[in-house]
Amino acid sequence: MKALPLVVVMLLVASPVLGAVGPTDGSSHSSALDGATHAQVESPSNETIHVLDIPSSELVRSTVEAHHVDLGPSLDFSALRAGGRIQTGASLERIESASDDSTRQQLILDELNGIEQRAIALQSAQRSVIERFNDDNLTARELLIELARIDAEARALNERRVALRDVTSRTSDFSISSGRLAALERELDTFTGPVRTHAVAVMTGEADAARFSVRTSETGVVLSVVADGEYVREAYRTDLRDRDQRTVTYEEALDIVAENYPTIYSSRTAQNGTNVISAGDSHRVRINYNYGQLTAYVDTGSGRVFKESQTRPLRSISTTATATGVRDGLALTVDRTYPGGPLRIQLNESETGDPVDANVTIGLEASQESTLLGHTGSDGTLWTVSPSAPYTVTVIKGNSAVVLTADPTPTPTLAANPTDTENDTSPTVTSTPTESTESPGPSRTVPQGAPGDSPTVGSPTVG
Question: Is the model's pLDDT at 156 over the cut of 60?
Answer without folding.
Answer: yes
